[in-house]
Specification:
With 479 residues, this protein is mostly beta strands. The protein has helices at 2-23, 93-100, and strands spanning 116-121, 129-133, 138-141, 149-150, 160-165, 173-177, 192-195, 203-204, 213-218, 226-230, 242-246, 254-257, 264-270, 278-283, 304-308, 316-317, 327-334, 342-348, 371-375, 383-386, 397-401, 404-411, 415-418, 437-442, 450-454, 457-461, 469-470. The strands form 7 sheets. It has a 4-stranded antiparallel sheet, with no helix packed on it.
Length: 479
Amino acid sequence: MTRIRFLGVWLVVFLAGGAWLWGQEPQRRPTTPTAPSRTTVQTPGPNPTVPTPTRTQPTRPRTTTPRPTTTTGPTTPTATTPEVPLAPVPVGAELEAFLINMTARNIGPASMSGRITSLAIDPRRSSTLYAGSASGGLWRSMNHGLTWSPIFEREGSSSVGDVAVAPSDSSVLWVGTGEPNARNSVTWGDGVYQSTDGGRTWKHRGLEDSHHIGRVVIDPRDPQTVYVAALGHFWGPNAMRGIFKTSDGGETWKHILELGPDCGCVDLLIHPEQPDTLIAAAYGVRRDGFSGGNPAMQFHERAGFYKTTDGGQNWTRLTSGLPTAKFGRSGLTVCLSKPNIVYAIIQTERTNIRALAGQGSRENADAETGGVFRSDDFGTTWKKINDLNPRPFYFSKIRVDPSNDQRVWVLGISLFASADGGKTFRADGAPRVHADFHALWIDPANPERLLVGCDGGVYQSHDRGRTWGFCGTLPFPNF
């Protein structure tokens, strides 16, 4: 009752104030005083009067009402400013020349960027950063993210699935186009591109019909040897999906892991010390015209983990400790200081995806519901650690500290952080940062330094995620 009376008093005050303002005469904006016009009055005869100025009455806005004067003789007209004619509107050839010489200028966004899908950092110069976006191309910063420049503006697609810098030659970049997140609104790509001059120029290197590329992995011994994890079409079947390999810089490709027209690959992990050993994450996903949230199809009998130890000539499906239920989307990461330790996040047909946030964090040994898994032998055997799996089709990304295998991050609507090897997670790994995380890079030389890419752009931290700074000079939206 007291609250109602309080609100009533304020309502009366508000209405009374509005009534008083309604009755006031609108204030006129002060105008800059101008010199009064001078009207000379002459009297006929031998002794004319001395010319005297007449006063001009103050004017109301939009209306001029000079005080009427009575003269007894001819008057000298008041001087007026000549009108300046408007420039003619260009037509024909003039209009064409006018438009050609026009230049565009950025008018936004002013407070956030668009969705980041991938991050890459020059391994030899960590001040050089690359950020790939869902529909805004590829951007480069050469000063730790203070300023950014677009370097992928004239290629066949503006959607970046992944960007990779060659470990043996940082002037060599590879880009796989087509966002790998199967949203109901998603931009596809037209294959892979290579640059040999740090992103100044690009060459298209094939795989045009792959549409969506989840990962590009470069052999650390040779920048011309590249693996591509291709998802294929989201809206129908096609053959160009799975794992592809080139050994000649993209001149030719081999389809080294083929799983059929409905199952592609979303992630690929290379052993840091044994580059011929890789693990692929296979994923079958399909959108239709009616699935507004989760995709219509996101599980497949051939989805799961596959391992090769001979550079892709032979593959073995991994099963020990993994779910027997059909796999959905999954993601992989390796600890650089302990290269046999691998973490994975796995979605299955039994993962709880009814809530938008996905499956929450809790210790659970039941592998069938999916979640966070760990392997200590580079994927041969696995053990489930946690149930956590936020909105799998949109995220399914996991990262581990290069110097500490107990520090684990899971990307989702929030950034989840663990300090005990994934047994427990807290959801405040990136406070006061835009939601929906898709990329995370941890500096191997300084693990306190983190970069994240999310639906609002790029942020970086220098205290392992306690505080974050926004890279506010990435001026691209998300369509």
